[in-house]
Amino acid sequence: MYGSTNLSEEDAKRMNTTVEDPEKLEAFESRIARGEKIEPQDWMPVEYRKQLIRMIEQHAHSEIVGALPEGTWITRAPNFRRKLALIAKVQDEIGHGQLLYSAAETLGKTREEMLNDLLSGKSKYSNVFNYPANTWADIAVIGFLVDGAAIVNQVINSKGSYGPYCRALERICYEESFHLKQGHDNVVYLATGTKHQRAILQDAINRWYIPLLHFFGPPDKMSAHSEKLMKWKVKLASNDDMRNQFLDQYVPKIWELDITFPDPNLKKNNDGFWEFSDPDWNEFKRVINGGGPCNAERIAVRKFAEEAGRWVRQALMNPTEKYVAPLA
Amino acid sequence: METLDPRIKRLSLEISTDVEKTNSHLITYEVFHQEKRGKHVMHVGIVHAPNPEMALVMAKEVFGRRGKTTNLWVVKTSDVYTFSLEDEDMFETTPEKHFRDPAYYKVRDRIEKFQNKNRV
Amino acid sequence: MSNALKDLLFKMADDALVIGHRNSEWTGIGPMLEEDLAFSSMAQDKIGHAQALYKILNEVLGEADADTLAFKREEKQFKCCQFVEQPIGEYDFSIVRQFLFDHAELIRYDMLTQSSFQPLAQLAKKVKGEIKYHVMHADSFVKQLGNGTEESKARLQSSLNYAWHLALGIFEKSEFENELISKNIFAGEDELKKRWLEKTTPIIEAANLKVPATDESKIIYGGRKGFHSEYLKPLLDEMCEVVRTDIDAEW
Lengths: 328, 120, 251
What we know:
The complex is a heterotrimer of chains A (328), B (120) and C (251).
Chain A: H1 9-17, H2 22-33, H3 46-71, H4 80-105, H5 111-120, H6 136-157, H7 163-191, H8 195-214, H9 227-231, H10 239-255, E1 267-268, E2 274-275, H11 281-291, H12 295-316
Helix pairs in contact in A: 3-4, 3-12, 4-7, 6-7, 6-8, 6-10, 7-8
Chain B: H1 6-9, E1 28-34, E2 41-48, H2 52-63, E3 71-76, H3 108-118
Antiparallel strand pairs in B: 1-2, 1-3
Chain C: H1 2-24, H2 33-59, H3 66-71, H4 82-85, H5 91-112, H6 118-146, H7 150-167, H8 177-182, H9 189-206, H10 232-239, H11 241-245
């Protein structure tokens, strides 16, 4: 649901010091400049491969971990329509994980290595999934706004330079449009429903507002930049631009339901940009580093899934077959 | 473990940090999808599976769970033989072979010239 | 005739709803991503079958709408067999349950394509393809795991032994059995059970597993008459939790 393009200080430094064959690099960069895609068998800079793996893997982890907060309500969805939609939606997240892990596999890291790195904490996933889904209204808000935020990010990334990632994202964006619609449908039913329904919706919006602002990462002025990632079309838009696009698309759709956001400063200024109270970025860092309300639970549940399924995977294994990376 | 998920609560998980690594992995199958009869069968992605039968069983829900599907094909990734991308230059001049291009054949001018000359 | 029909439709719908609900518990935490997707789709299919059956009850036989029947009935009113109520357990139980249950479903729906009750015959024709896939999926897993590692083989056999007498409870007859047969609505549980044994036995053998011996006295009956295991009530309480917070709301 979200592949962060924010670099660590260390990565940013290495990006600028790794030396590549100038002739190959030139050919690679001019291919991207011409708007052509890079395919798995192409030569590519070491750092390009590394950053893409990190980003696609993080995105894949976000999908399968993102299935957990919503999964919480699968057994409690209140009618057939919602029950089927929720199961199908959570299932899609797993499907998106499958597509994204496959795209990352083409770069030479196996699915198992990626899953191991998720469980050991070596590799991250989106912060937004470390918050709890307290009531049924959280499902509506996640389906509409968290998926809405993810789509902003994914549509932009699907214009990137790496072929397999773009193909996966195109398919994902197509499927996510259903998530968004069913999320909106759910939000509208609650907002136009009983007092109780409106109250749980307002409460959920109040709780998800800050995690949603955090979703796109720290403000541009605070984050490590890499001109190279932009040039290589790994990063395509700034955090602030994506956040602004999200607010522009979704805030009015909540306001029209007479539901509010817990921020008196949230408004569109005369230049067309959204203003809001700066959220606490220390909280963002704290959650990334494991301190969020649900980090431990998310990893524990993924770990359970891996361990409980191990005997199944082992029984399916055929030791005479040799793994090769997927083609495309 | 404290959790809001009734499914997880039933599992009574304990939180621990040690992870037993899984290093083995299933092989992959390339999946091809035919939307309708009469349409091309197109490559759509991969599945992890132990054998072709199970690859098909898996492919159905990974790539055929929405929209129309007529059939799916699976082929073991290692059985697919491809050109090297470095050989892409072999195809480079093909688009220039205009004699294969219908738009290359323009005779209208010649016909009109002939008609004017011969008053047809 | 309508009481007999209702009884048949309720037991089929309740079976499908409860097993679909149970199997959906694996969504997001399955043993591998591909299987997570497959199992989830099948859970959705089952819930869809339940909805379609309740719809017939509503539209043709004058019962309440599907959501009311699923989310607002008492435990006692449910006619599902106790087999489908059991918790998902570990994957070996879930896959063995799917194998045993879906073979029965496939045959049941196949028999119902001939039903004199047209709405049911039409539904049976429509969803047979879905259940065919459920059976294909279960067969390939059972064969692969039965012939897999020592652990997978042992797990499958022990789940099969545990599930066997619960599964035989699927075929519990109701007071309407003879009426259903004589009116050509459904060819009956005995016939279904016979064909089920013929279908499942060769697969169990191909999986190098033993078909458990049947002890008539150990078969778990009761579900079809409203007597349920300790697991159904908590399942329904959970399923209806949101609905009950605001019983008249539209969700």
